[in-house]
Amino acid sequence: MDDVTTDGRRPWTGRWIWCQDTGIRRTGEFQSIPEVDERVHDRRVLFRREFTLDRVPGRAPMRITADSRYVLWVNGVELARGPARSHPRRLLHDTVDVAPALRPGVNVVGVLVRFYGEPTAWWMPAVPTFSHGAGVLVAEVDLPGGVLGTDRTWRCRVSDAWTRQRPSGLGQARPEVLDGRRLDPDWLRPGHPDEGWSAPRVVTALHLGGIGRAVPPTDPYGPMPPRVTAPPAVTPRTPAGLRRHRPGTPGEPVTLPLTVDLDAGSPEVLTADFGRVVAGTLALRLTGPAGVVADGSLGERLDGEGAPAPPSAAFSYTLRGHADTFETADPGGGRYAVLRLTGSGRVTVDAVTVSERLRPRPAGPFFTCSDPLLDEIHRVGLRTVDLTAQDAYIDCPTREQRAWTGDSVVHQAVDLVTNPDWRLARWHPRLAAVPGPDGLLPMAVACDFEHRATTTIPDWSLHWIRSVRNLWWWAGDRDEVAALLPVAEGVLRWFAEFARDGLLTDVTGWVLLDWASVQGRGAGAVLNGLWGRALTDFAEMAAWLGDHGRARWARAQHRRLAEAYRIFFDPARGGYRDWAHDGVAGPGLSDHAAAAAVVGGLVPAASRAAVLRFLLAREDRVTSAWSFGVMPLRAAMGPPPPDWDVDRQVVAAQPFFRYVVHDAVAALGGAEHVARLCRDWRALLTEETDTWPETWSGGSLCHGWSATPSRDLPLYTLGAGPAAPGFARARVAPRLGDLDWARGAVPTPHGPLTVDVGTEVTVESPVPVEIDVGGVRHHRPPGRWTVPAGREHDPDRPGAAVTA
Fold first, then answer.
1. Cα 653 from chain centroid?
2. Second label for 286, Cα 20 to 30 Å away, from 576, 587, 676, 689?
3. DSSP conformation class of 640
4. Are residues 387 and 361 in contact, defined by beta-carbon separation less than 8 angstroms?
5. Per-residue pLDDT for 798 more than 50?
6. What is the DSSP string of 253-288?
7. Spatial distance between the Cα atoms of 153 and 140, rounded to a whole number of angstroms
8. What is the spatial distance between Cα 393 and Cα 177, in angstroms, rounded to a whole number?
9. Cα–Cα distance between 731 and 704 in angstroms, integer?
10. Neighbours of 212 (CB within 10 A)
11. Which helix (H) or strand (E) holds 775?
12. CB-side exposure of 50: number of CA atoms within 13 Å?
């Protein structure tokens, strides 16, 4: 294992292994398309390997991956779950230090591998070859005596303890049905009897053009790079309260451990209230007779029967009568866990917990100010993003758990401003960079939607380009940007095919834009504005890389767009109309159209003040949402007539699109208003949860795309951010508005940038910094500096705008 490849990775010595029945059907060698037999869908295979150590090493790195999911134990201690979601042709592997679980003498590695078979919200199957694509494991660990890799010396067993399930519901989650009587927990201990176990099959790659390799890399899994995101931080969460439900009663408060006497005709129901939304794997510890069944689920709310609605992690566990500890294989989310016990005998519920498995948030960055409400809004946003930052940025942990291509632009931006661990922020744009033959990105990646080539959301690809721009501006990695820019170009050229006289018209797909009522037909101001922003982002990044030809192409497209975009402007109201058809603009105006025009660089200088006034005038806003709850069926029927007064009222942006609105306000020189705008989130603060919901009036209770204030308060109110790609220079431009003071720190690649604003502005910067107070700029080298606070910002002062 001393040899390394040119990129520093050591060649694999562990072999691909699986059970003897691979589950791949074919009628003749290389004469048909291989298929995976449905009988092996949702199959679980157990693997174990004993070995002896004279001494425990200080470190014992283990590389491991599987198709589809694995759990790794050493001597009964769980050490890892994986792999992280990815495209199947770019399967990731994990590296785990197993030394903490080793001991002198006999040790055992145990691995449970689950093959889903059917695509889910977080996994998509590989195109099978004649050997791979129906479940596989590979692992190897460095030990003092050499490398212990997967091969025929391991033992395996197809487990019949689980009842196979199929995906169900929007989230494509599978109920988990486990009979503990059929799974001896001692299989994870040294010395477990060998009866019923056999040698695994070493899977040799068989495909057209293959050379029979039995070690990675092989088709269909590609080069198998290492996971680049941080291992999840596992935090146990216990209920804030429990209630015991008996027939005909509303329930009574109880505490754990709780002992109940069951009879066959009277189930016991226990509701655990975690006090807020939690996300992870639900675990139970029970004591009772074999055959008792514990059914449960985890969800956001309770229905009229006291059950979670909708369930996020439904399961059924049959007690074995000893060592009854159960933990769900797939993560879920919710505030309430409901447990239903049926059977006969005395049962004790010893523990109910949720293990949150989230990407880490190291200490350091912070924001606080003179308004406790804004402090709370900032904190709730961080909690919301944390729960939706797992092995990818997901829309919500309580329902779908899909990695949506457009949603993640907010999650990523919040992480860049508030989390010193940027690994997920850098990884997610790469995860989503999987264009189809037309160049457009899937609306959600590494999931059932991508696998089935479901109709996509075109504007999500434009938000993805903004996430690439975020990565460029904050991290400044040339290789990273250069790798992603061709994908961005393909997206832009797809849109360019729909340009008629400069405007995108009749763009196909599900043009969502936002849950607000801004959908229509013809040429849309919102979509064209987002396209304008993407063209500018692309041109800036291409020029930074020295690719001036592509930059010129994008700028030429933008000039034609800017000329044609004038059709949408309403000079009397200072805003932009949403749609134009046959050269005539419709009557509706929205936050979205005006904000998209600004960030798209499409507002003439003479109109900027009017557009800022339009965006700041909130008294005439309506939160109409045609789409929510009925899309995409509503889109298939076409948008209904407006249900608001289009001559006086304006459609307000839902929480997701507010990141564009706030960017626009700041770009127009109104950053001192951002704190006031963030107070709109006061309406979403409830006792039901401490996370942000999907919309102003519905949807899931934990949606990361609603967390914009957690980015904007440090970025615009405190005014801390980069002045050049990769923080070659920093910029501090505090715009407190009505606040008396604000303090905080944001991460940079060179260390934290700390700002304290009150009667003076104190900055501690690891790089050269421009301190802009009231439009007066102070240029300082790295270090700690204090300047007078100066006068309040004037939005009409030239050069006073703040950009993201």
1. 22
2. 689
3. P
4. no
5. no
6. EE-SSEEEEEBTTB-EEEEEEEEEEEEEEEEEEEE-
7. 13
8. 28
9. 27
10. 10
11. none
12. 10
